[in-house]
Amino acid sequence: MEDITLTINGKNISCPSGTSILEAAKRKGIKIPTLCYHPDLEPFGACRLCLVEDEKTGRIMASCVTPVAPNMTIRTDSPAIKTHRTNVIRLMLANHPESCIVCSQGNRCELRQIAADLGVGEVDLYPMPHYTGLEATNPFIVRDLSKCILCGKCIRADHELVVAGAIDYNLRGFKSRPATLYDMPLERSVCTFCGTCLSMCPTGALSLKNEQYVGSPQNESKTICGFCGVGCSIVMGSVDGRIVEVNPSHEQETVNGSTLCVRGHFAHDFLNTKDRLTQPLIRDNGELTPVSWDAALDTVAKQLVDIKKKYGPQSVAFLGSSKCTNEENYLFQKIARVLFETNNVDSGGYMSGRPVLNRVEKRMDGGCRKNPLSNIEKAEAIVLLGADPGHSVPVVSYYLKRASRKGIPLIVVDPKKTEMVPFSSLWLNLIPHTDSQLINGLAAMLWKQNSLDAVFIDRFTEGFDVYCEGLKGLDIESVCRDTGLTMEAMAQTADLLAGKKIAFVCGNGILKQRYGMPSMGALLNLLLMTGSLGSERGGLYIPARENNQVGAWDMGAVPDALPGRRDLDIESARKDWERAWQANISPDRGLDVIRMVEEAEKGSLKALYIMGENPVRSLPQPERVRKSLERLDFLVVQDILLSETCKIANVVLPGAAFCEKAGSFTNMEGRIQSFEPVVAPLGEARADWEILQLLAGKMGSPQHYGSLEKVRGEIARFIPMYRDLDGGVDPGWVRQKGDRRLFEPDGEGTLIPFTPVVSIEHKDINDEYPFTAILGSQRFHLGSGTRTCRSGRIRDYGVKGEIELSLADGASLNLQNGDSVRVESEHGFIEREIKLEKGLSKGLVFIPVAFNANDVMNLIGLTRLGEPDSPGWQECQVKVAKL
Amino acid sequence: MKPKEIDREQLKAIIDRHRGKTWALIPLLQEIQETAGYIPPESIEPVAEALNLFPSQVQGVITFYAGFSLEPKGKYVVRVCRGTACHVKGGRSILRLMRKELGLDEGQTDPEYRFTLETVACLGACFLAPTMMVNRNYYGKLNPNKVASVLAQYRKKKGES
Ligand code: SF4
Ligand code: SF4
Ligand code: SF4
Ligand code: FES
Ligand code: FES
User: Does B41 reach chain A within 8 Å, measured CB to CB?
Assistant: First the structure.
């Protein structure tokens, strides 16, 4: 498009046509006051504050909605404009309540700020405030709509960014206000409490409900959300070293832009719980007793070294954290591998389905690591498989909803009618764990109509022939029988996908299910056949549940790979790291977290060092886990909270939360994000990397890093994927690993193999347990809920995590909403209230995780994910009885 | 008398006829309003679902236009003009009279759902000021006698039905 030249305040400006006058001025550093404009929202032109004048024509216009035109001669501050602006503000203030003076928005209110800038003090107009009453009935957002200036930012944020539709204008004229359906309080609407509207509101009409503090914070600084793997950029406000509020950082290049979710926005108040650890503790006469750091670290070092000497390297294990930084996980596994000569290292990522993801890693040889979520809005078609991102990784759901609103076909594959279903073109309500048959069936249908990317297959893959043999033999009718889908639904799906590059968003429903391995295998085949990988119009997106589960794996906090995801079985990988570390590395695979528990149970594992994980709450069969860990000779837990696992430890070391230290996290997209501390660690607590470094010193490591930069330097030097970690403020994206041709710019390299079609024999359902329970998350909690259940706001909101049953089962069991049931599997039972759900098929029971100390883990067996005989952790057979 | 019973099947048919046509929100709402005499609040969600809009959006449109109502109205909707021309010609006393005659305030409907009293900004018939409308009929050059006779006419109609 042609550039357009004009002058603004005498400056010559040239900009693309279509640019608004406001944006053109902004680029030249000319400030025009605004109240309803936001760069992330469609311009609206409601507040009339951004008025400017064209000197030539005398025309006065709202600069945010007026595009530049050739030869305009704009003045942003002529006397006429100033008068108009002042009048606009006077009118707004006349409509404003007196409580303005004591408004908690205080000096951050944009309306007051602009009034002050324009010199508008006392308003001389007849005051006509519109009292609406204060709505402060939920623990997150306070609404005082008498202070609303109808800028519409909240409504546009709600519709355009998070696509919730909770609010819109209601009524007209003087009475007009943003309202929910039937003008109900927010908690009785579809509001998800993402808070996006709250951090956009220019006045005190929407404000943060804060029991702990009123007013604006003393300090604000940027960091990364500590909850899920989206890795939202946030600004945390603090007062006297305590976090009092969180907002999105409002930077367009971040993953979240101006959005957040309820956890990121409101649940960080868990940081101020009384359960925070503030000093080292040692068990003395059965009681955890405060001691000095020196005493604690001496004990840990001595005990671990003694146990290793006595029982050998395999008797000690290390469980790292998907919540700790890259630097910390790197140091942690290095201590295990170098000082203890063991590969018994794992991290919380196991609980998020790493065994199945390992399959992707191997097939792609570490390619396919950079997956910007912004590409989802460029996809040709999207398939959402076994994921309910609105709850698990809410920001991903915003991308999907926006894509759907743009008209990109979205297919939801889920036995449950999730919140994404209303946004979908098609909902495939399949029988649980039949995804692999569905995917293969679809592949066969596409293949039969020759809907494949032959050039792609030829250039980048191998083994297509064998795969085709498998597809040829597939009988679609039996696929329909297995999956419970109609032929028509299958055909419609194939139609929607035909000839398109597909973006798959694949969640725990695949990663943690019984047939996770074959499902993932089938999925990769379909991605390859359709040429959907390596293109921004398709791809594979794996929602990471924990903020640094990806980074912890990259840093080698896993039993079968060295840092940089180098396969432990490959000699050259070991040699490289032996050279780097000047140490011998054991070629023996280490224990994963499940085997750690099993070996402790048998008595062959003697000592365990846990950093930032709470396996007694997050693993299946928690009682069994507890007993097994109690059998250890020595258990060290380094954490920020006095968790269930801390309570059985011999030594507890107080670490620092993400906002109390510097470091870097790698998000689900492959974006490495470094950050600086917002506040200092509490009490005597210390950054985890410092603790590790002190310990390493006491355990005889000759190396002393002294600073985080040195640790980063070592990572950048020896892990090519993280080459950009040192020095720079913004390390950017994980670099490509391996040499798959698809991901190599020079077009050289190895091919990605297709795998044969695997058919699955279904096990018969045991009549004793006729229901299938599906475990899933709820947006108010993360993971097992160790942190979110300590958020005062989340607690006050009072979600109970009711067990959901179909209407039909409700009727046959004579159950009503609010009744309690006992749900029992072969491993254990739980008791909870129920809720009847229309969107659930007969025979299915949905159980939200993280509630009641995550008791749902009693229902599933402690088996290794992805093993052929493992029933997975996502579903289990249960019986249900009314209490 | 009760407000007209709503024929749910008929409403459903109207909504289904507009399914998928996001642009058709206003005509769809008009049709519901015509058929039921108002827009039953419980139809907001089905309308939104059919047109792929948010229910809050649909509500916003309904409450923005004076022509839509979320409450059932009387059989006869009296709209007294409060525009400038009518004001000058004594529109205010016409309204006062109407309030007294019907025993209703602006926006109210009598318990028998016979009459609803409303005001409008201008009926666009200023040359006939002061004016009012009853349902779709205009009445101009009003004076107390004329108001009484118009009302009597509708009261009688009611008696017939
Ligand atoms: S509540 Fe705030 S953001 Fe929403 S319209 Fe009113 S002033 Fe604007
Ligand atoms: S909190 Fe989020 S979902 Fe709720 S109204 Fe605001 S933007 Fe919408
Ligand atoms: S929990 Fe996840 S989606 Fe929510 S704000 Fe934090 S990083 Fe973003
Ligand atoms: S900023 Fe332009 S009208 Fe509000
Ligand atoms: S002012 Fe009453 S009809 Fe115009």
Answer: yes
For the domain bounded by A100-272, which CATH number is listed?
3.30.70.20
Chain A contact set for B56 (CB, 8 A): 165-168, 170, 179-181, 189
Of A159, A172, A422, the CB nearest to B63: A172
**CA of B43 relative to ligand 1 center, distance in Å:** 27
Fold of A771-882: Barwin-like endoglucanases (2.40.40)
- pLDDT averaged over chain A? 94
Instruction: Indicate the CATH number of A281-347+557-733 among 3.40.50.2000, 3.40.50.1820, 3.40.50.2300, 3.40.50.740.
Output: 3.40.50.740
Interface contact B55, partner A, CB < 8 A: yes
**ipTM score for this prediction:** 0.87
Give the domain range for residue B54.
8-64
Q: Tell how far the Cα of A780 is from the centroid of ligand 2, in angstroms.
A: 14
Asked if B82 and B120 touch (Cβ cutoff 8 Å), the reply is yes
Same domain for B154 and B81: yes
> Inter-chain contact B56–A172, Cβ cutoff 8 Å?
no
Q: Which of A392, A400, A390, A425 is nearest to A411 (CA)?
A: A425
Tell me whether residue B83 is in a domain.
Answer: yes
SS3 readout for A729-750: CCCCECCCCCCEHHHCCCCCCE
Summarised one tens digit per residue, pLDDT across range A722-755 is 999 986 668 899 998 888 999 888 888 999 999 9
Per-residue tokens: A70: 């050739």
Note the ligand closest to the C-alpha atom of A23. Answer: 4
Give the ligand 5 atom nearest the CA of B130.
2
Question: Which chain A residues contact residue B59 at CB under 8 A?
Answer: 168, 170, 179, 181-182
3-state SS assignment for residue A477? helix
Same structural domain, B94 and B59: no
Residue B161 clears pLDDT 50, i.e. is over it: no
As a whole number of angstroms, the distance between CA A755 and CA A439 comes to 13
Residue A1 confidence (pLDDT): 62
The answer to whether A756 touches A467, Cβ cutoff 8 Å, is: yes
Which of A197, A209, A402, A797 best tests ligand 2's pocket when mutated (most atoms within 8 Å of CB)? A197
CATH code, domain with B30: 1.10.10
Structural domains counted in chain B: 2
Q: Tell whether B39 and B103 lie within a shared domain.
A: no
Flag if B45 and A181 touch (Cβ within 8 Å): yes
The pLDDT score that the predictor gives to residue A124 is: 72
Best CA proximity match to A880, nearest among A851, A265, A865, A836: A836
What CATH number does the domain located at A355-541 have?
3.40.228.10
- Going by the DSSP 8-state scheme, the letter that residue A310 receives in this structure is H
In tens, the pLDDT along A348-385 reads 999 999 999 999 999 999 888 999 999 999 999 999 99
